[in-house]
Design goal:
By secondary structure, the chain is mainly alpha-helical. Helix content is 62%, strand content 0%.
């Protein structure tokens, strides 16, 4: 009897085949005029509502800023000493300089509060975002950066240039 060698069958892992991507047929193009008209109307409505939402967000920021300024001003006035009386002249001069500095800060904050009130009033009367000089619309990015502004960037640049010339610079 002859012994036969049997071959072992080796098992190989099955490879997964990637799915073939089938492209969908392209839709027929609509008339160009109707597409342009539809997108123009849609973008106008979207930009108006988007701008309105951003303006309302700016109003909320302004009101919050106003509350913070009023609270800080009240705290500062409570901390402000009434009469300064130090035996050393240097200490008295330093204390008076600090007091003057705090009062100047409060004055600047008072002017900012006035501008905030004016901006909120313009929002309520739907005149917010319109330049007081040229009546052009102020860019939303400018309004977000400087919410109390009443001038567009061009008019503000011109105003600053005129001020610089008037100062002799």
């Amino acid at each position: 009897m002859v012994a036969r060698k049997t071959k072992k069958k080796s098992k190989t892992a099955k490879k997964t085949v990637a799915k073939k991507v089938t492209r969908k047929p392209a839709k027929k193009a609509a008339k160009k005029k109707s597409i342009k008209a539809a997108t123009k109307k849609k973008s106008k409505k979207t930009s108006l509502t988007l701008r309105g939402k951003k303006v309302q967000g700016i109003k909320a920021i302004l009101l919050s800023q106003k509350d913070n300024l009023l609270r800080e001003a009240e705290e500062a006035l409570n901390l402000l000493p009434g009469e300064i009386n130090f035996p050393d002249m240097g200490d008295q001069a330093t204390a008076e300089a600090d007091r003057d500095f705090m009062l100047r800060l409060r004055d600047r904050e008072r002017m900012l509060l006035k501008k905030i009130d004016e901006a909120v009033e313009r929002i309520d009367t739907n005149t917010y975002g319109i330049c007081e000089n040229c009546s052009n619309q102020i860019g939303i990015k400018r309004l977000e950066a400087r919410p109390v502004t009443s001038l567009c960037i061009d008019c503000k640049t011109q105003q600053e240039e005129e001020e610089r010339i008037a100062e002799g610079g």
